[in-house]
Amino acid sequence: MIKTLFFDLGNVLIDFDHKLMWKQMAKACDAPIDHLKDVIIGSHLWKRYEVGALTKEDFLEELDSLLEKPLNKEKFLLAASDIFFENKQMIELLKRLHKMPFEIFLISNTCDIHFEHIKKKFPIFDMFNGLILSFEVSMRKPSIDIFSYALAKTSSKPAECLFIDDLIEHIDAASSLGIKTHHFRNIENLEDDMKKMGIVL
């Protein structure tokens, strides 16, 4: 019997557009997209930021230095964050599940720039028993450590937990600990899988 639900955030509960993010950030930085990707990804700047190794201020200062040109920080923050869209069907499902006797946790690779924006735009976080955010716990999916950390937050056994995520490498990591998983594609497939696991919606 499933007692605990672990949800991913991006492209599960809330949709986002990576292409739009890079386009907007490149415009805000007045830099070609490929160069900006080299700077942010090649230097592992974003990964370090997502695990809390850098504060927002550290991230912006280092980016400014790597770009070798003045960065309009306010414009960049908006460009990086204004990329999220509500998945109405999934939010409605979350509301239904919240009324049922489940523990519900969020496990998300994110940074404070994104999470601050999402919290203001989507008032859904009071429906969770806990938020496991990479920048707060200094771990990212698909590390086994973040799933072990999540399991320690609940009294449920791994086989009593269901993890829902859109990336297969995250699914594989959770499965290796005995957590039941659903590789998210759409709400119809998720609801079908939930019914097979005995979750009556």
What is the correct CATH architecture of the largest domain?
Answer: 3-Layer(aba) Sandwich
**What is the number of strand segments?**
7
Indicate the CATH topology of the largest domain.
Answer: Rossmann fold
> Kindly, what is the distance between the CA atoms of the first and last residues, rounded to a whole number of angstroms?
14 Å
Assembly of the depicted chains: single chain
How much strand? Answer: 5-15%
| The CATH homology group name of the largest domain | HAD superfamily/HAD-like
The tally of helices reads: 11
Percentage of residues in helical conformation = 40-55%
Outline the low-pLDDT stretches. none
User: Could you give the order of the helices and strands?
Assistant: EEHHHHHEHEHEHHEHEH
Counting structural domains, the number is 2
**Which strand order do you get reading across the main beta sheet?**
5-4-1-6-7
Which structural class do the helices and strands define? alpha/beta
* CATH class wording of the largest domain: Alpha Beta
- How many whole angstroms does the radius of gyration measure? 18 Å
Please state the average pLDDT score: 96
Globally, the shape reads elongated
Major sheet description: 5 strands, parallel
Protein name: HAD family phosphatase
Organism: Aerophobetes bacterium
InterPro entries: HAD-like_sf, HAD-SF_hydro_IA, HAD_sf, PGP-like_dom2
